[in-house]
Structures are given as C-alpha cells and as structure tokens.
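Note to self: the last two entries modelled the partners one at a time, which told us nothing about the interface. This time every component goes in together.
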Amino acid sequence: MISQLFILSPRGDVIINKQFRLDVPVKITTEVFFRTVKFWKDGDKAPAVFSEDGVNYVHVKVAGLFVAATTRKNVSPSLVLELLHRVAKVIKDYCGVLSEDALRKNSILAYELIDEMLDHGYAQTTDTETLKQRVFNEPIHATEDVGKSSVGGGVTPKKYGFFSASVGQFGSGGAPTSAKRSAVNRSVIATPQGPDESAGGRNEIFVDVVEKLNVTFASDGSQVSSEIDGSIQVRNFLHDRPTIKLALNEELAIGGRDLGAFGGPGRYQGYSAGGGMAVLLDDCNFHESADLSQFDVDRTISMTPPAGEFALMNYRVAGEFDPPFRLQTVIDDGTPYRLQVTLMLKAEFPVRNTCTGLQVKFPVPRNCVNAHPTLEQGSVGSGQQHAAYTQADRAVVWQFKKVKGQGEHVLTINVSFPDEASARASKKECGPATLSFTIPTYNASRLQVRYLQIGGGPTGGADGIAPGGGGKDGKGAHRWVRYVTKSSSYVCRV
Amino acid sequence: MAAARTKRSEMTDISAALRTFASKGRPTKEEQAQRRQLFQKVIQYLTIGIDMSPVFSDVIMNAHTTDVATKKMLYHYITHYAQANADLALLTVNTLQKDCREEDPVIRGLALRSMASMQVPDLVEYLIDAIRLGLKDADPYPRKTAALGVLKVHDLAPEALAETEILEEVRRMLISDRDASVVANCLIVLREIDGERALATKQNVYGLINRIKDFTQWSQVTILETVALYKPADKSETFDVMNALEDRLQSSNSAVVLGTVKVFLHATLDLPDVHQQVFERLKAPLFTLANAGAAETAYAVWAHLHLLTMRAPPLFAMDYKSFFCRGSDAPAVKKLKIEMLTAVADDVNTYDIVSELCEYVTDVDAVIAREGVRAVGRIALDGDQNVAGIVDRLLQFIEYNQEHITAETLVQVKDLVRKHPRWIDQCVVAVSGIELETIVEPEAKAALVYLYGEFGQAMPEAPYMLEPLLDEFDEEESEEVRLELLASAMKLFFKRAPEMRDMLGKALAAGTNDANQDVHDRALMYARLLHQDPEAASRVIAGYKESVANFSDGAGFADKFGEQIFDEFNSLSVLYRKPAFLFTDDKPVEVPRTPDVIEAAGGGGGGSAMMGDSLIDFGDEPVGASSSRSAIDDLLGMPAGGGGGGGGGGGSGPGSSHNLLDLLDVPMDSASIPAAPPPPLVLRPAPSLDAATFQARWAALPPAPGCVSGPRVLTLGANAPAVLTAPPPLMSHLATRGFATIASGGAPSTGFKYYFYAQAADGAGTFLVEAVVNPVARAANVVLKTDAGDQRGAAAEDILAEAMASFAA
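The predicted structure of the combined assembly is written out below.
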C-alpha cells in the first residue's frame, strides 16, 4: 500500500510528513512532488496521479493544501484518492476547519489521527466515532471568532427561519450564511457528552439536498445534454449517537435498482415516470452506514450517522428536466465593422424562489477591438445588475445580485472589429454563454425529504417544527433540511 | 553563529525541561499539561526537519508517563529516530513491554504498534514476544495491531518470523477471528507474505464475501481484490459470487465499486452474454461516481470508463451523451471523453457526436480544440458511416483561420487521403487555399508539404509554394519537415519536371550537406537513385501507392498491453495506460512482445513488411510522424543500387526492417550475420477483418502445410462434450488465443462449423481457419490458410492445435 503520507501548504512547506514504509526516500519526495506539480508540462494542471523516478504520487487538493501519498506498488488509485479525501475530512471534522493555519496549529492532533487511520500504509479506522475513543489530543481553534460563534449556543440562527424539516415549507429570500458557517467550522470534539447546549455544541443535524446542474443548450434552445448530480449532504452534531430515519418521495423510481439479479430474468421493469409527479433517478449510491432494508419498500433510509460531515446519498438524473434558466442569443451582423449581440435571459423557476449571484459569461471573438455591453432600461444604476467587458478574458460578464423567479432580462453587446470582413467571419466565435448561479430552496429534480426522524420516537413529518428554527424533537435536537440548486456546467450555445 | 547558538541553547532548554519532568514521580495536572506542550514543541520541530535526536535519551526518560496524549507523542518521537539511534531505542524496551500489558487496550495497541514500527533489528526478539501476546489479546484493537505487526517483522527479519508459529496463527485467525478489523489485517499480511493469488481460495473467498458488510470500505477493497483472483468453478458459482456482491455497486466509495466491477468482469470473461450484461449493469454506478464527488476520484473513474469503452465501444454507443464534455471537467477528463466519443461513433450517433465535437473546436483551450479536430478526423478516417458530411465538417475547420486548428486539420487531412483516396479531390481543393508560411508547427507543415508532393498534379501552385521552403532548406529547423521537403520535391519532380528541376537540384545539394544523418542519407540516396536509373527512380518515387488500410498510431501501445491492463483493472496501470511491470519492480506476468530489433535483423529476408513500422511505432510517437515513415517506406521500395552507406542486400518488400536498418547506418553485411531462427509467431489480441475480405482471401489463399492434403484433425479438451453445447464457448476461448470468429453455426447433433481468422502481431500475415467441430468426438477438422508462407502457417497451426486442446481441458 502507501509508503508515505504528507500534507503540503500551497507554497510547498511540509506540514505533515508521515512515513509508513522504508521504500521511498521520504525526505526528498515532498520536494520532488511539489516541483513536479508546480512545473507540470505545458502549463497544464498536474493530474491527481503521476509517477516520478519509480515513485507513484497520488494527491488531492483540499482547501489549497496538497494531501498526498507515495507508493511503489500498483495500488488502486481510487482507494488512495478516497482515503486521502477521508483523511482530510476527518482532520477537518476534528479541527472544525481545514486550513493551513488550522493544520499547523493542530499538527500533533493530525499525526495522532493519521496514526490511527493508517498503519504500515494500510487504511485502518476512519470512522470519527471510533477514532474518538483512541485520539487524545484536543483541537486548537484556528481563529478566535470562529470558535466562539460555533460554541456560543446563544447565537440563534434566525436566518434559518424559512428552512423546515418537512416538505413544502419554503421560505423566501435571505441567505443562510451564519448558521451554516458555524456548523461547518465546528469540531466534532466540541460536542459535549450531555445535552447541555450552553457548554458547547448544539444538538443538531443539517441535511442539505444539493443539486448541481449540467445542461448544454443548442442554439435553438433544445437541450443537447442535461444531467443533475445530486447529493444529500449531512453535517451531524447530534448528541449521544441516535439513529435517524430519512424519508424521500414515495414516488421515487431508480433505474439501477430495478435491474434483476445476475442469472435471473433481469432488465428494467416496473417504474415509469407516469403520473407526472414521480421523480426518476437514473442511479444513486449511499454512504456505507446507510441501512437500506426499507428503502425499496417506502424509500426510507435508516442509519446511525457518523459525527461530522458526509454524503448520505449521491444520485444522478440524466433525463431532461425543466431548466431554471434559458438564454437566447441573437447576433445581428447587419452593420459593417460590428456585431450586435442580444442576450435574453428568462428565469423559469417559480416566483417564490430567488437566485443569488447569477453570472453570465459571454466570450466574444478574439480579433474584436472592443465589446460594449448595455444593460436594459431601468436597471442602470439600480445596483442589481452589472455588465463589463474584460480584455484579458475576451468576454463580457453580466452579473446579477438577485434574480427573481420568472424574471426576464436583456443585455445588448456591441462588438466592434478592425475591418469589415472579420466581423461577419468571426460570428461563429461568439459564445457559448456560460451561466453560474445558486438557487436556494429549489431543486430541479423535485427529490424531497419527506421527513427526518431522530431517535426511535415517532417524531417527524410535519410536527416538531420549532418556532424560529428547524424541526426540534423531544430530546431537543434541531433538524435543518435545506435545498439548493447550483450550476456545475450550464452552457448555452449560440 | 548567533542563530546556531540560539538553536543550541533551545535544545539545551528542552533537554533540561524533559529531565525535570522525568524526575517528577507524580506530576500535577498542571505539570502534565506543560509536559504535553513541551512534547508538542519537540514533534513540531521534528516535523519541519530540525534534528531533535540530541534529546533522545531525555525523551525516553519520560516514557513512564501516564498521560496518553504525551505517550503517543513520545512514541511518535521514538519511532522517528529509532533506526538512527538503535542502541538508545533498546532502552525503551522495558517501557514498551510494560505498556504491552497495560490495562487499557488502546495503550497495549499503541505500544505494540510503536515497537513494530521502529524497524530496529535488535528489537525483533522482543517484538515477536509482544506480537504473540497481542495476537491472543481479548480486545480486537491490540489484536489487529499485532496482526499488522507480523508484516512489519516480516519486512525486518523474515527468517526470524519463519521460525515461529506466528504465521500459522495469522492464517488461523483469518478464518476464525470474530472481529472484522482483525480479519482484514490478517488478510493484508497474508496477501503480502503468501502472495495474493495464494489467498484466493474458495474457503477464504466465501468466508470474506459472506461477511463483507462487517468490514470497513477500505478492507472491502482488499477483499474484492482477493475475490477477483478467484476463479469460480462454474456458471452458477459465478452468479452466486456476483449476487452476493451486487449491492457493493451502490457504494459511494469509488474504490469499492471499481473493485466490485473488477470481480464481475473477470468472473464472466468466459461467459460472453453475461459479460455483456455486466457492462450494462456497471454503467450507471460508474457514471454516477464519475460525475459526483471530488475531481480527483472522478478522474480515476473516467479513466476506468475509458478502458471499458475502448474495450467494447458498441456497448457504450447509446451512452454517447454521457461523454459530452462539461465546462467543469478537468482537461484530462475532457481528453478521455473526446477519445471515448471517437470510439463509440456508429451509424446512429455519429451525426450527434461530430456536431458536438465541432463545438469543442472553438474551445478557448487550444489543447481541447485540437483534440476536437483530431477526433473528427479519426471518425472520418475509421468510419464506414456516411463520411461525406464529416469530411465537410473537417475541411470547414480550415476556414476558422486559427493557426492551431488549421495545423491539426492538415495532419488529419493527410491521413484521410492516404486511407480514403476518394476524398482526395475535395481535400486538395480545401487545402490549396492555405498559405504555407502561416503554418508553423513542424507536423502540420510536413503534412502540407506531403500533400503538395503527393497531389501536385492537381495543385497548379504547388511548386511555387514549395519554392521558398526549398530555397531556405538550411533554415528549416525541423528535420521532419526537411525530410518531407526532399520527398515532396522528388515526387513533384516526376510530375512537373521543368518547374522542379532547379529546385530539386538545390534541395538535394543542401540535403547532402545536412548535419542530420537521416536527412543527409535520404538526400544522398535520392541523388544516387536519380543518377543510377531515373526510370527506376520514377517507379519507386512516383509509383502507385496502395491506400493505407490501418494506421498504427499511439493507441497501438495500449492495444499491445490491453489485455494486461484489463487484468490489472482498478490499479494505476489504467491511469498510466501501461502494465504494472513497466513502472513497478513487479515482474511481468507474461513476457511482453518487444520490438526485437535483433530478431528483425536476424530474420533477414524473412523480416516482414510491417516490421519497420512497428519498430518506429513503439512508444508514444506522434501520429504525424507517419508521414516521414511513409517517405522512408517509399525510399525503401527501391531496388538497392549498391555502394555507399546504403549498400545492403535486397530487401523483401517495401518497408522491410532490413532496409530500414541499412538506412540507419547499421552495419549489415548479410554474410557476417549467422542465420538466426525466425521470430516466433505472435498473434494480435484483437484482429480485425471484414467478411468480404475473408471470403475473397479464403478463395485465393493456399492451405498451410498441415492441411494441404485435406483438413487436419485436432483434439479438443476432455470436457468439450459437456461445455460445447452451442458455438460461443469455443469462440470466446479461441479469442483469448488471438483467433476471432467471423461466422459460426450448427447444432450439437450435427457439429458446429466456424470460420476464424487471426493476424500476426507484427502485421505480417493473416490466418484464416475453417473448422468443423464435433463436440462429442472432441474432434475439430480444420483447414488453415495464410498469406504468410509455410513457416508461419505451420506456427499458426501449432497455436490453433494448442488452443483446441486446452479448450475445456
């Protein structure tokens, strides 16, 4: 397996360097690694796995840090990559935040964790809960204020008011930043053994349904390809390791699961997207601790969630879906020396949702002299929209603070050229437009968490929604269920 | 100096402080915390590379501490410096031994792990005792630590370990221990010591599969590796194994899923229909992993998907949209996707795929843009589909007027016209608009020069385009271009002598003075050829050329080792596209086919027409170099006109390696080289031949020596009557030996009839087989025909005979 694990700062300083086997020169490998990554041929990004002088280097980049392993064996790259991510995640779970500063302050703790997670280069325990029994150093907070806000307990996450633990209770507007951040930056160790909230971590669990959209539109507006990569992300700070039960839409059809056993009749059968309301997933996978015995019956997942952050379920929808945005582009080459590009943007999602931080990037031809964007009437000076051409990128960037559902916006770009012929010839060099955005409380696949039940009690569903916050069950545990849709690759061709 | 003194004095302070703490029998809570901080400081210094070994003895004096956090740091320190301070390390033995009997299992495990990690030979004796104790511990934590300790002892002193009963104990624990983490470590240890294959027994595999869910995901990967080496006895056992592991495919850990996929693929190799079903089943989970999760893990999954797609492109033809690039993809992933798109293009999806690829051509990333052009070119080249539209698209790229796009397009066009002469007219028209001076890249420049030379009769301006380049022959930096210039000048000379005479003269003069040996030799040879016999020169240089049936490009390397890389699924081999023996110390499983220069040379006249080709091709050679190769081929076709550096015996055909070596100035006096045995026949793992060609050749070729007087009777393996109830099993078996099936039929009662074909790996020879198989009698009546001569024919017969005999043996 692996011979060495090391973590380097973005500048190549060695923060952690742990040797497991004597078959690699551990003192120079860190340097060889950093040099190779820094000066990868052709200015490309170095791949996650490469070989140098007979030593195989496998690395991941997390929060600017290089987490890397060396080996001389023909290992499974996936295994090492997953393991490195897991190591980074566990360190993060312990330190509350993973950064160069945090890691330097907690390097002893990190060593202790690595010693328990890997022995002789083989993965051992990486489960936070088991590690807690064997790890004795305590985390040192990287930055003062982060630590305080997370353990304060008195900080009521007011902005979470519109998120609920049950279905269909959408709020509107606002960005849930502070509560989220404190949850992210919290150490699993800060959770006290008792239910006493004021002493440390709140007894709570966050369930985020995050969907990343990959859509490519042809110039006629049809979808060339469309895919949703979804994930149910959990951040668990519940006390006393209760079991939880998470229920998804009952009308949920999943492609891969309906395939027969090998040697049997096999093939897809049954589920269809009929009725219009069914949610069809092409495939999904689950965290190792998920108990799926009831999943095929009533779409519920039971588990004793590990402390900290993990993906409970990943899923993929490959079919067409209603895209949240459409962008239509018209290019007028009627005037010599000039192309007039009109971008018409339509937000197709419901009025009650608001998209934050939309950005439309529209590349213009290389040989143009200038590109001048003009915002629609009424929006100039309102501070809501902004558009500018940057020479270096050869692109016009059109930004919005907020876009309301069903909103429509127009941008006109005048692109000027040095000579008459090149304007027309360069027409096909315009675009494609790339959109990046985040839409809270909206998910494109319509996958829903019907209820989230904590402990064995019959709580869940619509009951137990505490005022001013998420659901709270009898034992005082807070539940936050939240939906968000983001762009991953959202391309509108011209 | 000042800094050094500070450092030294700090070391003295640390040393003093450590001693103070060591002398305190029962430290207060406060003192414990202070000591902890002191140790933290020591470890931090150690991490950033400051040599902390001077305080080794002071550290050891604190070994009796009861604070676990401090103890851990202390052991961390000791293991770090133990090797360099073996004598001092011995001083810790007492403490370590004591800790191995400590009440707290965490301490017992810690002491054991630290002791084993020190790698100090003098400690082995103590270590073996501690491991004995640890393996019997009631708590699983010391037990699993002890198990891995066994491996550490093995690395340190294998003989000492072999003298004990410990390995037997570990083997016993693998089967009987109740704790999964202990079993997992036993498995790890035995895989390294006994060998991975030795562990893949039925008992082990069943035991591990049955409780696989008890193991961590990491251990599951090790188990799956072991299962993948196990060969189920029959179909139903294969299904049992697969059904037991089926739910592993829904893991969110890509290593677990790929490990499972490997088991499924390897278990079904002999069951073609199930194998295909496996492909269908594994797509969805792999696509999910490739799209979810971190970029690094996704890349590894894409690399594996790439391998599978290249192995069976038609099975992924429906999924082509999954291979469309995303803006968020890393360049490496985009490259893989574009290659996959090229591979899966078929009658149905080609239009969509080419349209998509054309979008990439305008990508801001020039590398991706070129990949797009190359992919369109490859599809046009390989496609039997409606290529017309694709060629149009390819030629349109020239109009984009972007240097890198035009350059890449030219390279593709050159290959296209060499394979499909019907596109020459269209391509020549499109290319003749390009101004040569706008092309900078050598490969593209050489391609354009080649086109001028080859199709100069259709391009009125060709001589004048070449003129400036020929005039400044000396200033051309790339020898690839210079070689091509010479060849093109020659070709054009035979087409348009009046215009070319002066230019050619100047070029040959410049070429013979060239510092580059290849350019020099070629110019000299052209000059001599013209001098000796212009008629012959004309036949050689401007003669009719067969269109190229198949280019062996860079992918050929992966092809060569394709099976081996597939065998090493879920390993680095897949990412590097190389079998493990090329980048690790592991010995190759099979002796690879190497481009044996010596063999080729020794073979003399027996050397094959393609041998020179494969010689050049070995390694990651850029595609475009084939142009210069073609020129070499052209040259070599000449009847050698004795004398000078070129003087060798007559080669057998165009491109003979014999002649190539002559050209490379290898002394080649045929008399001085003893006749070496001919190279052994190796068959290409995945031959390709279409039915029409098969029929035509079958009619034309003579039978091989063994079947001249009627079919040769070969014997099948003992279980053939049971196994061979339908044609496929024999087909898949023969495929592993290099014989592909072009047609099959029949029923068990009447016997089966097959038509197989195979191709020599070096390209020299196609073998066609008609086989009438009677499974009950275990007899196969075969007729083998070949164009490779008797010797190879007989060799192919031997391979076939072995293949038949080993079927169902």
